[in-house]
Specification:
The chain is of the alpha+beta class and 259 residues long. The chain contains five helices and twelve strands.
């Protein structure tokens, strides 16, 4: 698992399968088959439209002045476009609403749009690592990858010049936690899955980065034979800072698969 949004990866100087044994590679390839993987199902790329709805909890945090209704309406009117391709970082663009006639309000709306864009890209990056791409792949194998058995399952450690990761699995091979380091900041991802006929699919995950905790709930829907995102509920808070963070619902539509 690369977790690109958490850890900057650069493998140019590393030969393929540099330190990982063939036995470990075979084990991890078999482990991948336990999970629903869009790229393995034949999806190489998709685009979609996305719209946000602010949660009542988030609306309470917005400054309560005469511009609040206009601000909420404008933010919920922002049109986002999403593009995801296998083994690449998601791309998100947006078209902001027209001017309101209030320069300060327009500036707030633009800032909010940019903030939501970054949040959506981060949420989608983690989702792609768990649903679009295999849990572990050639980029993983190019590093020093080892399996360690424990009393309640096993762990997979991944060490390289650019990242250090540890993946925790239960005895049935279900991923329960991923821990890593970005610079000197510890990262922790806790996913949950549900069963499908084609493997486990992620339903929610929590990302902890220093004091910031982001929780993402995923609602999946069938689209042309693939299980795609219908909605994402995103909630982010800074531990120990009341009134911090944001929460919103992201709804996907107008999918174009393998365009």
């Amino acid at each position: 698992m690369k977790l690109i949004f958490l850890i900057l990866a650069s493998l140019i100087a590393l030969p393929l399968y540099a330190d990982t044994s063939q036995k470990t590679i075979d084990f991890l390839e078999k482990l991948n088959l336990k999970y629903y993987c869009l790229s393995r199902e034949g999806l190489n790329k998709f685009t979609a439209d996305a719209a946000i709805s602010l949660t009542p909890e988030f609306e309470k945090l917005i400054a309560d002045d005469k511009t609040k209704p206009k601000f909420i309406a404008a933010v919920e009117g922002i049109k986002f476009s999403v593009s995801c391709a296998a083994d690449k970082a998601p791309e998100v663009t947006f078209s902001a609403p027209g001017p309101t006639g209030d320069a300060k309000l327009d500036s707030r709306i633009r800032q909010a749009a940019s903030g939501f864009k970054q949040s959506i890209e981060g949420a989608l990056q983690t989702w792609t690592e768990m649903a679009f791409d295999p849990i572990n792949d050639q980029d993983t194998y190019a590093k020093d990858c080892k399996v360690h058995y424990t009393s309640d399952g096993f762990t997979v450690s991944v060490s390289g010049d650019d990242e250090t990761l540890r993946e925790y699995f239960d005895k049935k091979g279900q991923l329960s936690e991923v821990m890593g380091i970005m610079g000197n900041v510890p990262m922790d991802v806790t996913p949950h899955y549900s069963k499908t006929d084609k493997g486990l699919i992620v339903t929610d995950f929590e990302v902890t980065e220093a004091k910031r905790v982001t929780t993402i709930q995923c609602e999946n829907k069938p689209v042309e034979g693939f299980l795609m995102l219908g909605q994402m509920v995103c909630d982010a808070k800074i531990s120990g800072v009341p009134g911090s963070g944001f929460s919103f619902v992201l709804s996907f539509s107008n999918y174009k698969l393998n365009p």
